[in-house]
Amino acid sequence: MVAILRIKKEIWAVKGMHSGRIRCGSITAVKICSFVCLFLGAALLSAQQSDLALKVCNKTGFEIVVAIGYAEYDPLSYVSKGWWRIPGGYCRDVLSGELPKERYYHYFAETTEGPHKLWQGKSKNSLDFCVSQHSFEIVGRQSCEERGYQRKYFRSIGDLSRVSKPYTLNLTD
Length: 173
Fold this sequence. Notes:
By secondary structure, the chain is an alpha+beta fold. The chain has helices at 2-15, 27-48; strands at residues 49-58, 64-73, 76-86, 91-100, 104-111, 118-119, 127-131, 136-139, 150-159, 167-171. It has two helices and ten strands; from the N terminus they run ααββββββββββ. Strands 2, 3, 5, 6, 7, 8 and 9 form a seven-stranded antiparallel beta sheet that branches. Strands 4-1-10 form a three-stranded mixed beta sheet. Helix 1 runs antiparallel to helix 2 (27-48).
């Protein structure tokens, strides 16, 4: 934002140099500034975001539910979202559109029918997140139980901006 304002000021300053004042009223200067701001704004946005998708494929014969967790960095907070229901043998986009780069994603999944199967974190790369029994979007990983939620350990997917688009997570027996 500072760079955009600085460029606007410099373009307007060049336009008004002959009189020693900055003139903003010129139609040409406004058009140039609008174009430059639009171009730089798009460049800055694309540097921070990427068109990504996370597809989850259920390769089991039973329905599963999936939750996703990640960190927001401005300010730092953790977010968990769920549940996406995916019938056996089907795939579903769980995240799509403009997603920030360098955001590490995690997942938790379990069967809702048949033999109970969990896809959960068990290593040093796993993180615990809060979940609810119903659809949810929860900010924060701390004090899950005190806030009326359950704590689950999520597996790491990694930074989706470093993988092929869309990224497909295959869950198997």
